């Protein structure tokens, strides 16, 4: 979970833990990229608008890393217009949720990208 807003990060992490997920947290993009490289997570949830490194830049950095290129990524943002959604998907995000979102929506999105990844692995 890469989110610069402490309250948003707490709520999302709490919901994910309650749903049975292990959650590693980062407060900004550079920290999130470093933690992803160290822990190789199953999925990455990342805010778009953060200081230092945007979510789009995080996606680009991780898609360029051979070991993390296929990790599903979900972007979170308060920007709800189609232009920003398209930018996130073009950058390589697997899903895009607009804030405010319900915790169950985040859990559903994570379950969906993990299920797609598992299906893809079975075909390989």
UniProtKB/TrEMBL annotation:
It comes from the Bacteria. The keyword Phosphoprotein applies. SMART domains: REC. InterPro entries: CheY-like_superfamily (IPR011006), Sig_transdc_resp-reg_receiver (IPR001789), WalR-like (IPR039420). Pfam families: Response_reg. Residues 1-114 form the Response regulatory domain. This is Response regulator. It comes from Ramlibacter terrae.
């Amino acid at each position: 979970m890469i989110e610069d807003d402490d309250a948003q990060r707490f709520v999302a992490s709490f919901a994910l833990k309650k749903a049975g997920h292990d959650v590693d947290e980062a407060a900004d993009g550079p920290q999130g990229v470093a933690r992803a490289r160290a822990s190789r997570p199953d999925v990455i949830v990342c805010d778009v608008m953060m200081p230092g490194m945007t979510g789009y830049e995080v996606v680009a950095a991780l898609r360029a890393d051979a070991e993390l290129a296929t990790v599903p990524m979900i972007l979170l943002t308060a920007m709800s217009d189609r232009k920003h959604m398209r930018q996130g998907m073009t950058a390589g995000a697997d899903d895009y949720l607009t804030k405010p979102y319900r915790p169950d929506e985040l859990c559903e999105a994570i379950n969906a990208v993990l299920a797609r990844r598992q299906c893809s692995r079975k075909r390989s």
